[in-house]
Write a structure and sequence with these properties.
Blueprint: E1 9-13, E2 16-19, H1 20-40, H2 49-69, H3 72-95, E3 105-109, E4 115-119, H4 128-150, H5 152-156, H6 165-206, H7 212-241, H8 245-255
Helix pairs in contact: 1-2, 1-3, 2-3, 3-7, 4-6, 4-7, 6-7
Length: 256
């Protein structure tokens, strides 16, 4: 049994290496596109089948996001991004639990001359590159939404404020906070999903067939929770970034 922290290369397209996690990510994207196409191909006033299922998921997620933002009009502005995060992460997490993922592959000789097993498919979020890409998109989107909401100059003062030494130091801490947020986003998702796949692999190797079943149920729940946590944290940070802090402080001082 071999457990690799990095995703394994399965083939090349030109000079570009394709890893098993990247291949699984493409499959997840294609699956979401196909399901979305069939769900919205012939919309009906009284939905049924796949349209009914998608409308139920979207409505539940929209209500949850609205509870955080508190304004339905504002929620709809950010909903496409956070809904995409949730659906993609959830589908990727659950697809990593499908039979054959991590167990079907081929053998090759590595650089040390040892024959190792290379799985053809690996969960997309069990690769740090995927989760880091999601974290970068999330953090950059937060900055863009913040600038669009309160203006470039006012938003930039949060990071670059020379009105005093304390304000400047707080700005440096804000920059460090944005970088650490990106790191925590990526490692939290990667760590939980990768650890779950390792746990299932070890249990299936030691006691196959029956013993892994309870752990599959646990990983289904963990996959859902991680998708929800990533999505809700992104939404909370968007709400914080788009808040006019100066206006809020003036209102509080006037009230006092």
């Amino acid at each position: 049994m071999e457990i690799s922290l990095a995703a394994e290369k399965v083939f090349h397209i030109g000079g570009f290496p394709i890893t098993n996690s990247l291949l699984m990510t493409w499959i997840a994207i294609i699956l979401l596109v196909v399901l979305g196409y069939f769900a919205g191909r012939k919309p009906q006033m009284i939905p049924k089948g796949i349209q009914n299922f998608f409308e139920m998921v979207v409505e539940m997620l929209l209500n949850l996001c609205d509870d955080i933002i508190g304004d339905k009009k504002v929620t709809r502005r950010y909903f496409p991004l956070v809904a995409t995060f949730f659906l993609f992460i959830l589908v990727s997490n659950w697809m990593g639990l499908l039979p054959g993922v991590g167990t079907i592959g081929f053998h090759e000789v590595n650089s040390h001359g040892k024959e190792v097993f290379v799985p053809l498919l690996r969960g997309g979020n069990a690769d740090l590159n995927t989760t880091l890409a999601l974290a970068i998109v999330s953090v950059i989107s937060i900055q863009i939404f913040g600038i669009a909401a309160i203006g470039f100059v006012k938003y930039g003062k949060k990071f670059d404020n020379f009105s005093g030494p304390i304000e400047w130091f707080v700005g440096v801490l804000e920059i460090i906070g944005e970088v650490s947020r990106m790191i925590s986003f990526s490692f939290r998702l990667f760590g939980n999903i990768f650890a779950g796949e390792v746990l299932l692999t070890v249990v299936a190797f030691l006691i196959p067939w029956i013993a892994p079943l309870p752990f599959y149920g646990l990983e289904l729940f963990v996959g859902f929770v991680q998708a929800l946590v990533f999505t809700m944290l992104t939404l909370v940070f968007i709400k914080t970034a788009t808040a006019d802090h100066d206006g809020h402080e003036e209102t509080v001082s006037q009230t006092v």
